[in-house]
Amino acid sequence: MNGPSPRRLWRYLTGPLRLGTFFRSPGDGRRQPQIAAQALYGALLMGQLLRQYSFHAVEALVCSPARRALAVRTSFGDDALAYFTERLDADCTRRAAAGVVSRAKRNKAFQDSAFIGLALDGTSSSRCRRPRCPWCRPFRNQRKQIVGYRHQLTMISVVGTGLSLPFDVEPYGPGDSEYRAGQRLLRRAVQNLGSRFADYVVVDGEFATAPFLHTADQLRLKVVARLKDNLPELLAAAQQRFGSQPPQLCFEEGQDRVEVWDAEDFDPWESLQWQSVRVLRYRQVKPSGEVIEAYWLTNFSPRRVSSRTLYRMAKSRWEIENQGFNDAKNRHGLKHICHHEANSLLVQWLILVLALTLERLYRLRYLHRGTHPVRTAMELLRLFWLSLSPPKAPDSS
Ligand SMILES: [Zn+2]
After folding, report:
1. Which residue has the higher pLDDT, 238 or 397?
2. Which protein residues have a CB closer than 5 Å to ligand 1 (ion)?
3. How many whole angstroms from 339 Cα to the centroid of ligand 1?
């Protein structure tokens, strides 16, 4: 069979994506390793790509006849994965993922996009009844009683390019916050990607605070942020002005009709060191009659970014929800705890987002050369599974 297979994917990763050196030395912190780090790391990555993310499932794969087809050289148990991930340097995977995304840009993976965005948001992953690691954050019922613990993290992804590529996460434990973790994540992302990689960062309303916007300014990123009632004065001013005006622009986007209002001369709130704030309001009318209305703020000038482009940038935030959190939770086990230890959890989350990005680059760019249609993620997964069984000798009876 000549179609895509885990082995051919591995050749793509170690060839065109140049991850071979990283896989041989992925930040192994074990003192006297018996099993090569590449076998353990490769198996975790292949497990993610086959949506077999639990350590028991990875053990079953590498102890089966499928191991050779997965390009994993040796078998091992789930305890070896726990020991390995507890000691693996997470920053090595972060730098490798950013390196892959940077290489994608150099290889013109985003060439059809005038602007490259970064979307950043927080979510909760796995839950437990008792705190067992430094990232276990209590969550409370309406009477403020602790009813359990959960892990929370911020994720960052390339968006707005037709290719959603998540590449880093930052967890936050008790006493920390989504918004502080988001600032650390954004700083590290720009450090790993380079300051000229992206044009803007798109975020939900809780990040629309002066310190976060100033962090983006320092990193030379424009901001596109949802304007909600946590900024009541600006929101009220925009509602009052746009409420008395007809829309400045109407256009069709897919099957939807979109009306936009756009003005660049709103006053910044007291702590925001901007000259003025541009606010966009849109009303999106679906064929069913459903209306979605939202306000967004930005420091992009209308000369550089039109109302219609700004609308699309705002909508690119959904990629972190859909292609980031939803895929990670529903298909790749973000809510599953393989081994409840802080570094092991972090490494599992990072390998998960790396796997999402590698699968998309392989499927949507590398395999898509030529004229054949784009394969869906499910079609590629099916081809991977079909390629795993060893060829049988022909039946001559
Ligand atoms: Zn925990």
Report:
1. 238
2. 133, 136
3. 10
